[in-house]
Each structure stands twice: as structure tokens, then as C-alpha cells.
From TrEMBL:
Residues 345-419 form the Secretion system C-terminal sorting domain. It comes from Larkinella humicola. Gene3D superfamilies: 2.160.20.20, Immunoglobulins. The keyword Signal applies. Keywords: Signal. This is T9SS type A sorting domain-containing protein. The lineage of its organism: Bacteria, Pseudomonadati, Bacteroidota, Cytophagia, Cytophagales. Pfam families: Por_Secre_tail (PF18962). Coiled coil: none annotated. Residues 1-23 form the signal peptide. InterPro entries: Autotransporter_pectin_lyase_C, Ig-like_fold, Secre_tail. The keyword Nucleotide-binding does not apply.
Length: 421
């Protein structure tokens, strides 16, 4: 039986765009990571995952640590990469390397980002009381919220990509043109830009793709070539398009893509692009202008790619403004292939109780939805996977007879199985 596995790839930094360089390289994969069960060690090169309490860990160059729960305390980042999805982070000495935020990271205690590159990826959120940028902050489709002061020091830099957003109460800039937007537009929103709290000792940027959102009470000087919006409450109103979601629903033939926008400013149309290698994209649609419908004032768009066959495809949205400029969405990967043993459903056909069996290294929250082939949802259930082997059961005796698609989300991977009742 053909099954479809799809997952979101939250990396858009490697999208090719003429005339621009990349903010940051693509994130390393956490697939196949080795579970860490003890601390008090210096890691060798390789990929590791944390789902329990770990302390006194040193992460050198060549080592990648993926946090999906648990805790990391009293540790050192010495040239390696820490990928944060969830868990507790404290007392981290960030000496060099990368911290990649893919989940929501809020005020890690006794942790500074002075000497490391912090990359807030698509879907990631970094919440801080204050933020001093002495190295590099990359906001690649993610969001940074600072309740007090954000300060870019002379050695610091900000790179905005794929409509990444920074919301801060106050802002100070001591670098010269150290804020850029290198793959598409990004936004800096300053809630209280009053004189004395917000000042730019040097020009902010040479890029008009850096959008600066101000409430109109005070406009600081030295904004450089930034595109400035006054009477602007937050980045949502300054960005050309803000997405609520972008996802895929496999059909009997092809793949249906659906996305919802929460706001559109000077927007003309979308074009759906597809790739076999996530690098070389070609359009598969014409101009997508008319939404499929609206929900609570939000526009919903749909497109079905009937050319999808038994391969892995990568999709993205190209968004075109009224002035001809463009921006890209995150990348969505869809793999159409044969049944794997990672996730099995039995019995099939089912009568009363459906068992979902996992044999995967990933742990974390499981979200399950059961829908018929028209897309109507009948059941939903969540669980917590703590070990490699895990079984989850669904009571399906009340479902009418017919075919159903069972969608299982584990981390940022999605598994879809067809079941007959």
C-alpha cells in the first residue's frame, strides 16, 4: 500500500536568489541522533539528542546537539551547534558556535549569546527581557521578542531573512550598516522609539528590504536605506504577507497545498514552485490570486499539484508585491513512497480499535488526526512518546465505513496512512 510521509523543513536560508548572499547555512539534520543519557563529558564529532536532564556537557566543533525536551545545564558551547526545539536551558557558556532556535526559547537563565551566532529559524521564537548583540543574530523566518532593550554593539550584526521579525521596546545601534536582509524582506518593530532610549549612533542599513515599524511618536535618525513605516503597531502590519500556516494534504492523485494568510500588504499574487533537490525550483502554478475562502477574516488558498508522483518533492511559495519585489515562504517537503516500518497501523481493515506502532528514535508529543478522503476530520488525539518503541490506540468503532487518512505528527515529521473501516 502506497503511503505518504511528509515533514516540514524549516530551512529557507539556502534558497538561491541572485544578488543576495545567505544569512546562514542550512541547519544540520537531527535524524539518527544518538541519545545522550549522561553528562560530564566532551562530545566527539557527531549528532546527539537530549530528552532528559544533562549537565556539564562540552559541545566542540563538529558536534551537533538537538534538544527536544529534558534540560541542559552548566555546559559549554565551544564551536559546535545546539539546535533547540524544547526543554530547559540554563548556565550555558556560549563561547563559539551556533545556537539554532526551532521552538520557543524564553530567557535561558545565566546564558549569554555574546560570542555565538544565534539563528531563529522559521517557526522559532526567541523571547528575551533584553538582548545585547555582540556577534551575529539571524532571524530567518522566525520571531524575536524583547520586552526591554535590544542593542547592536560595534561587533554585532543582524541578518533578516524570509520575513523574519524582531519586536523590541527600545533599540540602540552602535554598528555601521550591520543590519541586513539578504534573502528577502525582514522587519524591525520598535514599540517606544523615544529620544534617549532609542538612538542610532551609526547608519542602520543599506538595504531597503529591512522594514522598520514605528508608532509615529518619534522617528530616530540614521535609519539608512531602511523602508520605514510610521503609524505601525507591529511587524504584522508592515510585512507584505504574514502566514498562519503552509501545509500539504496528500490526495489519491497528487498533493494539495494549502496556506492561510493573516495579513496582506501591497500583495499581488503567489506562485507555487517545486524542486527535487530543495535548490533548483521551477513554477508548477500560474498566478494564484483568488483565495479559496476566508476564515475569521483570514484568507485561505489552495492548489493541487497533479504532477506529483512517487518521489520526494520540495515546495515553496513565491510571493510577489505590487512593486515587483518577491519573498519566499518556508520549504515544505513531501515524500511519496512505499510503506516503512517507522510507523505501522493495525489491524487494517479496522473494526473497533486501531493501534499505531512507532519504531523511531524521535521522542516527544504525538498529534493524531483521522479524516475522510474529503478532508472532514472525525477524530483527534495526542500522546507522549518517551521511548523508541511506542504504541498508541484509537477507538474508531463510531466511524462510518469507508477509507480514512490518519495523520500523525511527531516533532517536525508527519506520517500519513490510509485505513479502511
Amino acid at each position: 500500500m502506497k503511503t505518504i510521509i511528509y515533514f516540514f523543513v524549516l530551512l529557507v536560508t539556502f534558497l538561491p536568489k541572485s544578488g543576495f548572499t545567505q544569512c546562514a547555512p542550512p541547519a544540520p539534520s537531527c535524524s539518527g541522533c544518538v541519545a545522550l543519557t549522561t553528562g560530564n563529558q566532551t562530545l566527539a564529532s557527531g549528532t546527539y539528542c537530549i530528552t532528559t536532564a544533562i549537565s556539564n556537557l562540552t559541545i566542540p566543533s563538529g558536534a551537533v546537539v538537538c534538544m527536544s525536551g529534558g534540560s541542559l545545564t552548566n555546559s559549554n558551547l565551544n564551536g559546535g551547534t545546539l539546535i533547540y526545539n524544547s526543554g530547559s536551558l540554563s548556565n550555558l557558556n556560549s563561547n563559539s558556535g551556533d545556537i539554532r532556535v526551532q521552538g520557543t526559547l524564553s530567557n535561558p537563565s545565566n546564558t549569554s549569546f555574546n560570542n555565538v551566532r544565534v539563528i531563529v529559524e522559521n517557526g522559532g521564537v526567541l523571547n528575551m527581557t533584553s538582548l545585547d548583540i555582540n556577534s551575529s543574530l539571524v532571524v530567518d523566518g522566525g520571531t524575536v521578542n524583547v520586552t526591554n532593550l535590544t542593542r547592536v554593539n560595534s561587533s554585532g550584526s543582524i541578518c533578516l531573512a524570509n520575513m523574519g521579525q524582531i519586536h523590541t521596546q527600545y533599540f540602540q545601534n552602535n554598528g555601521t550598516n550591520r543590519t541586513t536582509a539578504q534573502t528577502s524582506k525582514g522587519c524591525l518593530s520598535i514599540a517606544q522609539p523615544q529620544n534617549g532610549q532609542t538612538f542610532l549612533n551609526n547608519p542602520l542599513t543599506t538595504s531597503p528590504d529591512v522594514l522598520v515599524c514605528l508608532p509615529g511618536t518619534y522617528t530616530p535618525s540614521n535609519l539608512g536605506s531602511a523602508t520605514v513605516s510610521t503609524n505601525c503597531t507591529d511587524c504584522t502590519t508592515a510585512m507584505p504577507v504574514t502566514y498562519a500556516y503552509f501545509r500539504a494534504q496528500p490526495l489519491e492523485t497528487g498533493v494539495r497545498l494549502e496556506w492561510q494568510t493573516t495579513s496582506e500588504l501591497n500583495h499581488r499574487f503567489f506562485i507555487i514552485e517545486r524542486s527535487l533537490n530543495a535548490l533548483d525550483f521551477s513554477p508548477v502554478s500560474g498566478e494564484v490570486i483568488d483565495p479559496f475562502g476566508t476564515q475569521n477574516g483570514r484568507k485561505i488558498y489552495r492548489y493541487t499539484d497533479l504532477g506529483a508522483r512517487s518521489e520526494t518533492y520540495y515546495y515553496r511559495l513565491k510571493q510577489i508585491d505590487t512593486d515587483g519585489t518577491m519573498a519566499y515562504s518556508k520549504i515544505l517537503a513531501v515524500s511519496l513512497g512505499e510503506q516503512t516500518t517507522a510507523v505501522r497501523l493495525f489491524p487494517n481493515p479496522v473494526v473497533n480499535q486501531l493501534t499505531i506502532a512507532f519504531e523511531t528514535a524521535e521522542t516527544g508529543i504525538i498529534d493524531i488526526e483521522v479524516a475522510d478522503l474529503s478532508g472532514k476530520q472525525w477524530l483527534s488525539q495526542s500522546g507522549n512518546k518517551t521511548e523508541k518503541s511506542h504504541n498508541q490506540t484509537l477507538q474508531v468503532q463510531s466511524l462510518p465505513k469507508g477509507f480514512y487518512l490518519v495523520t500523525i505528527r511527531l516533532g517536525n515529521r508527519y506520517f500519513i496512512r490510509k485505513v479502511l473501516k
